[in-house]
Design goal:
The protein is α/β, with parallel strands linked by helices. The protein has helices spanning 3-17, 22-38, 40-51, 56-74, 112-123, 137-154, 169-178, 188-195, 219-231, 251-260, 269-279, 294-301, 342-355, 369-378, 390-393, 445-449, and strands at 81-86, 91-97, 100-105, 127-132, 161-163, 181-184, 201-203, 210-213, 243-247, 263-266, 311-314, 333-339, 359-365, 381-386, 428-434. It has a 5-stranded parallel beta sheet, sandwiched between helices. Strands 9-12-11-10 form a 4-stranded parallel beta sheet. A 3-stranded antiparallel beta sheet has the order 1-2-15, with no helix packed on it.
Length: 450
Amino acid sequence: MEIKELVERSRAAQKVLAGYDQEKIDAIVKVLAKTVFDNAEPLAKMAVEETRMGVYEDKINKNKGKARILWHGLKGKKSVGILEYDQAAGLVLVAKPMGVIGAATPCTNPIVTPMCNAMFAVKGGNSIIIAPHPRGKKCAKRMAELYYAEFDRLGVPRDIFLVIEEPSIELTGDLMKAVDVVIATGGAAMVKSAYSSGKPSFGVGPGNVQGLIDDDVDIGETVQKMTASRIFDNGIICSGTQTIIAPRKNYQAVIGAFVRNGACYIDDPAKIDGFRKALFPEGEVNKYSVGRPIAEVAKLAGVEIPPGTKLVILKPEKYGREEYLSREKMCPVMTAYAYDTWEEAVEIARANLLYEGAGHSVDIQSNNREHIEYAGLQLPVSRILVNQICTSMNGGSFQNSLSPTTTLGCGSWGNNSISENLSYYHLFNKSRIAYVREGAGQPSDEEIWA
């Protein structure tokens, strides 16, 4: 099917959608989440089978967890008509749809990313067309089938959610040029294509979450959090913690806790080189390592690890641009560094981020507010997550106030247009009715320049 026809169908459906009141819009948004929640298991199974990435049980949890938090975050939020009266400022804020949203979605998240983008789009009165990764096309098509049954029940047009059933780079590029707004969640080339489309675009940057451990934490609790962050869904989540940057005086205790938690610690240079070449042959990411179990990754590296190993921790001699392993590793592998001062810890994180992942996030385990805010001031990231499981909480959780999302903006550091979590309020236009403020007047020059 031609992109032109898809966009025409989507635009016609969007005109109908734009006429709905807030209650009707919210009923559709709820269905988009609840359908994934209710079908979490079969959709997780399909995702693992089609993409050949990740962990079935983790994908179930992700499908259910994201459906819950996204709907909870959107429920009751105004997005239709008059949003706000500001009597003191003399302003009235009015929401208006953007039109047709085109969303390129990755194979690493073939269910929750289309769901999330569709919820945000529809919340703003927009229709959406999904351009899935080729290894996620069956998932996207199945989601559409499930949604259409619910749309029919609600009496809304099916074409508010359309899918390119046989996706390609060319078709995705054509879609980006034909829609009104683009969301690109995927690799750097995809994001660059979105920003080159001539349309307003929201993209993401690569992750490379640095994990800083302070000397005042409960080591056992911290290690449990960081392990959970790294191994979830075989490490394909961009918010998964990539490094262990631990105080030298506690380094052995930290590593010992990781080993007791199922890690295999490797400081043998030859074995580390095996992983380096397996993960980044000639400096490029090995696609056969992405989202694969750690036993398979170790086999690629030619390194034997104990049965039941959950993750591998490597201790390279260098960090930053001098070490490929300082980059994002989309499998259950971490690197470890020891530091003498907190300033040194922050500098290690900074060097790694400037190599890859600037703009994304940092995982800090600390109870020292001064240290936390020093890192927040120094590091080029959009999110500093404190004492949490980064992979599951960085995109919003019931325990923090970050906007629930699957698309994490990385600001100018990551060549993105926003440095926050993408949400529904990015996907509608706002008109401002400006009245004369009561009692307002021009102050004197003396008052202005005082």
